[in-house]
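User: I'm writing a tutorial on reading structure tokens. Could you give me a worked example: one chain, its sequence, then its tokens, then a sentence or two explaining what the tokens reveal?
Assistant: Sure. Here is the example chain.
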Amino acid sequence: MPDNKGAQVDTNESLLRAVLSTLGRQAFTPGAIAKILSVGVGGKKQIAAYNLCDGMTPQAEIGRRAGLDKGSLSRSLTRWINAGILFRVGPDQHPLHIYPLSKDIKEE
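And here are its predicted structure tokens:
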């Protein structure tokens, strides 16, 4: 008999991510998130790092791929968590954004 636990976990995780994204869009406009990210200061790197926070990518990999040093990324993640646009999830506590932004977003 096949084990459906993996499928159930994937469905639950997908549904929870959808709920988080929907609620996040009600609480934070893309422009508000851009303002929190400080898009004006190294904006493309900040958006790239934020968008890589998919809950599955380790922090070190996010920094490497976004071109941010370890300290700068750590401070940014802490700021984003305190602002409510990022969470730590799973046993490895990978960062998860409330929803991704387009690369050409402007602050409000």
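What the tokens reveal: The mean pLDDT is 84. The radius of gyration is 15 Å.
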